[in-house]
Amino acid sequence: MSHFTTIKVEIKNGEILRQSLEELGFKVKRQTLVRGYMGNRVEAEYVIEQDHGYDLGFRRHGETYELIADFWGAMIDPQDFVKLVTQKYAHNSLLATVKNQGYAIEQQEILEDGTVRVVVGKWL
Length: 124
Known about the structure:
single chain, alpha+beta, TATA-Binding Protein, two-stranded antiparallel ribbon, about 35% strand
């Protein structure tokens, strides 16, 4: 019996996802298996292997990614993890979009409430 749970996340760009996970300090493997309860395994495009044998994976599902893991064994709070990853992803996605549209990052700061403030500019 599998204990894997999937959570849909609003993440579309796999490379920005990978970059975000690595910036958060996770070692990310590509195209491998997510390990779970009793040796169960499932494929994912991006996998964070954990020492205790319960991994976290992201796999494409239509236009977006989903997080797949045995959360009990992974010993993480899925809501906190998704919030952490999606916040970093949104920041990196914004920076990539700004750069692609010809803007320059002039200033970045993290406010007391955790909000990231980014100031961009473009010379015309």
